[in-house]
Description:
Chain A is of the alpha+beta class. In chain A, 28% of the residues lie in helices and 41% in strands.
Amino acid sequence: MQPKIDEPDEEHRRELRRNVFEITRLRMSGRIDEMMRYFARDVVVRYHGTKEGLFLPGVLHGRDAFKENIRLTDVNYEPLGGEVLAILVDGPKSSVRWRNSWRHRNSGRTATLDMAHFLYWRNGKVVEMFEYLDYHSWGRSAAEALIERDDPRPR
Amino acid sequence: MTNSEDFFSRPPPGLDRDEIRRRVELLARQPAENGDFAVVRDFCAQDVVCEFVGDKSRIPYAGRHFGVDALLNILRAINIDFAQSEQQIDDVIIDSGGVAAQASRAASISPISYASRMASSSN
């Protein structure tokens, strides 16, 4: 049974931590349908990306639009590895800071990004998400920060 | 696989939530109107670790730095390059000793810094 969201007890906090960690793992292993189970049908996704590269600023409404944007991303970029650096939970609010690496499918160039996501939960689902990111560049420092693939692809 | 419960649990902060929130709001409003970062020195440990994520070939302070003096030097350098205003905190998440904040500020490159960069690029 889902704990009441307005009771910030430790079990609720642990469950949200597990959920957030699982979202990052499913994203980088390409298991998007499984990942979408954590998001409400009418989720609002707010991207605060830089104005260069693929991850552009904008707002998406609904799980279908969110999933389609991930599909378009993965057409161009292969997700490699990811590493979660911190997860915080505060009642129905959570944030995750993580680092992930991507390879452009045409050029083969790799990029590593640090991302912060703020996820707001209601009845066990994410109803709103904010994304912030910074690039480690495409150059030598990107190679230094690269995280190799850490999870097998789905068969 | 990482045990997320153990890995992400945090030690008690030694401060109550209201005080943490107050300090976060003060830090977000730095620098003060006189350009001073005294609050940063007050609230950060002497051996604080800070990390600025970015392209090291374009952002000189990108990377990990140790100590409050290094942090203050970077903040002052940013404040020389950019005029900052309209600092605003949209949300704060407090989990034991960890804090995440969504914050924004307006920044414009200062005329002196812009002229200096133009001179550098034309040499």
